[in-house]
Amino acid sequence: MSKKLSFSEIDQELQSLSGWTKRNNSLHKVFNFESFELCMDFMQSVAEICSEMNHHPEWLNIYNKCSVVLVTHDKNSITDLDVTLARDMNEIFEQIQK
To answer: Is 0.70 surpassed by the pTM of this model?
Structure first.
């Protein structure tokens, strides 16, 4: 079960979520990679975590970029699941960029 976050909780979480912004009651980030292949590696790694969490992003890939929107649709809001997935995505991105 996901926990809907208050505006202040979201703002607090954003302070430690590098590159993420809040827009239209969702979290947004664009990940830029050196190549299409690295972007696909990222998306595949994230997909495995999403399946485990049963929580899936809205995302779009254009060559070496992956644009991500996170929102919990059944809550129509940002929840702890979105924050957890954002953190996981940042960690995977850092690992792939090394």
So the answer is: yes
